[in-house]
Amino acid sequence: VQPVGAALGVADSLAQEVARLIQVKLGGEVQRLRLQRETNSPEAWSLVQRAEKLRKTGEAAAAAGDSLGYARDFAAADSVLALAEQQDPKWSEPVSQRAFLAYRRSRLTRDRALIDQWVSVGVPLADRAIALNPTGADAFEIRGNIKYWKWNMRLEPDAGKAEALLLDAQSDLEKATGLNRRQAGAWATLSHLYNQTKTAVDVNSAATRALEADAFLDNADVVLNRLFLSSYDLANFPDAGLRCSEIRRRFPKDFNAPRCELFMMTTTAVKDPDPARAWRLADSVTALAPEGRREYLTLNARMLVAATLARAGLADSAKAVVERSKGDAQINPTRDLTMFGAFVYRLLGDPDGAVNLLKFYFAANDQLRQVYREDPGWYFRDIAATPAWKQLVGQ
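^ thats the sequence. predicted structure below, dont judge the formating
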């Protein structure tokens, strides 16, 4: 006999899934009606709908690992959108969608030259969409996403221009949320970008706004993970634990389900760190990780295992895992793996070892020196009074 609590849990999950499906269907209808009102050309509207179907088949091909299939469908979608432009040259939607296609194509390759190529295609298209409709939030979101992706991939070699690019991306995304306070995608990206320019409080606030605004739940897994990570960064471990439980319940096949539990094992919320379980969780992260991110996520999970080993008093093992898991600039352009390694050395009571690894991190993220100078966070607060730390952050 099924327990009453379990039965209620199943019923609740079914109700949530039914509500999600209804919201998705309604969202699609609302979007189609909005687009139909924006153009006087039935032909242009029809072509945009056709392009959307092609894009979705392309996304499905990409998810199945069919690179030729998604390239074919995305190219066809772009051609159809170009025809829609000709039917209604004053309508911004076809141009905006072409910019979005370029952005997606930049995200679906690991070839840095191709990423740069598609970014270079996408930004002028987004510029043109904004010129056609200066109050359209979607185009600002797309342009902000493209610029932030370019910054994230370190495609701008000039340090001054790279900083300007990051701030431009933030400005575009904030403009999108100003035009539409329920612009969930822009809030979601800001919840990641603010790690570079603002505080963990701002990250948490943006992620919360994204989850509240994302009525159709198409980005809930990503946003929930950002809420978890921002609570973790704020040392709000009870809330982080609740977010992790929600991720594991709602998205058990997502790599963030075991990963968030692994993060929790690095904190005082878990009194008895279990190295054997940490290794099992790390193996689960690797098994569930998407192919394009598997190498990085494997190394990241091992760094979290190293932190668990450090908390368990296994110093030599922790250091050995850190040394094997640092990665390089190709695997990890932002070098945050070295930041995780520095955290392990801090747990081991070795501030010099921590600072030596953080030098790699700040060399790739110089703009964060001031952030850490003002607030080293709970993970480095214990070493913030040391001469090595002060020299590192410029105090």
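Confidence is low (pLDDT under 50) at residues 1-22.
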